[in-house]
Write a structure and sequence with these properties.
Elements lengths: L7 E5 L4 H12 L3 E6 L2 H15 L3 E5 L5 H13 L3 E6 L14 H29 L2 E6 L12 H23 L5 E6 L3 E3 L2 H4 L12 E3 H13 L4 E2 L6 H13 L17
């Protein structure tokens, strides 16, 4: 099968939920696919369906992104495969409850997947895309990056990292004068996937008006990408609200680093 004119999209966490839905939508947009996740059987099932329904080429790439060796394998593919034009950095672990009193080993694994792997793959894709002057990186964060007081601490910290990483990488390539490399941080709210089942929770306990279907979320995120958004919040009605947050943040800039402490901190 000849390579797609859209190029190849590498999607992590592709065996279910948001990742599998991105794979479906991207295949229907004409992208060939590399599907990355731990569950090879589910990847094979998804790949067979997408090949049959869309005719694109789909490769299954089993990998556990909590394992540094597997992360290195995916990173190597991103750096070495010139056909890859899009990375969907989606793989992630959700919290099992509040950070206080939780299993610190699980927290470490969450950081390995949500932060370390995301960072390595985003940097690898950036290096590869800058070298050829084109490519898109979609990093899946969460609205909790903007409201850290409302959710489990370590998870919130990992998603705040993903948002800041995306914004900073974008700034770096702009400063370098690279015009063909694009970034998007997607900040979903509650989205109906299997992630709650995996940590022993249920969507039945949540206000249904707060939970978006995964297909609608991904479609909105891709519409935001098409519109050139750096940060997409699928449920936010007025983008001016987030623009105001950024305006306020930038206004802090002149006073964030000065040669003397503010007067209120001076003795006497």
């Amino acid at each position: 099968m000849s390579p797609s004119s859209q190029g190849t999209a590498l999607v992590t966490g592709a065996s279910s939920g948001i990742g599998a839905t991105y794979a479906d939508h991207l295949a229907r947009r004409g992208h060939d696919l590399i599907l990355v996740a731990r569950n090879q059987d589910r990847l094979e099932e998804l790949a067979a369906r997408l090949r049959a329904e869309t005719g694109v080429a789909v490769e299954v790439f089993p990998a556990d992104l909590a394992n540094p060796a597997d992360v290195a394998r995916v990173e190597g593919r991103l750096r070495g495969d010139a056909a890859i034009t899009l990375l969907v950095n989606n793989a992630g672990l959700g919290p099992q409850g509040p950070a206080l009193g939780s299993d610190i080993g699980y927290q470490d694994t969450m950081i390995a997947v949500n932060v370390t792997a995301v960072n390595r793959l985003a940097i690898a894709a950036t290096d590869a895309f800058v070298a050829k002057g084109a490519g898109t990186i979609i990093n899946i964060a969460s609205v909790v990056a903007l409201i850290p007081e409302l959710f489990s601490a370590t998870y919130v910290g990992t998603k705040a990292f993903v948002l800041a990483l995306t914004q900073s990488l974008n700034a770096e390539v702009v400063k370098a004068g690279v015009t063909g490399v694009r970034y998007q941080a997607v900040l979903p709210g509650l989205t109906r996937t299997e992630i709650f089942d995996r940590v022993g929770k249920s969507f039945d306990d949540l206000d249904p008006k707060m939970v978006m279907e995964v297909g609608e979320m991904v479609a909105a995120a891709l519409a935001g990408l098409d519109q050139g958004e750096l940060v997409t919040i699928p449920s936010l009605p007025d983008p001016a609200d987030f623009a105001a947050v950024n305006t306020a943040r930038y206004a802090l800039g002149p006073n964030l680093s000065r040669d003397h402490a503010a007067d209120r901190y001076k003795a006497g």
